[in-house]
Design brief:
Low-confidence stretches: none
Largest sheet: 2 strands, antiparallel
Order of helices and strands: EEEE
Number of helices: 0
Strand order of the largest sheet: 1-4
């Protein structure tokens, strides 16, 4: 299953938690009537003050189907 890795740095003074969202869009020449973009996956990350976190979002096969 394909996946996307994303990383970020928490700049707050306290530990924090966030959700990373991944959106996809159809090819420009797609004949299907689809929204401009739609959510394909997400991951929750937690990081301490001034710490970095990495999220891996698995993309199901259906995310690529039009």
């Amino acid at each position: 299953m394909p996946a996307l890795d994303a990383s970020g740095t928490w700049s707050g003074a306290r530990p924090g938690r966030d959700v990373v969202l991944l959106y996809v869009s159809p090819p420009t020449d797609s004949p299907a009537a689809r929204p401009e973009r739609w959510p394909a996956g997400f991951a929750s990350v937690t990081a301490g003050p001034d710490a970095s976190a990495e999220a891996e979002i698995a993309l199901p096969e259906r995310a690529f189907q039009v």
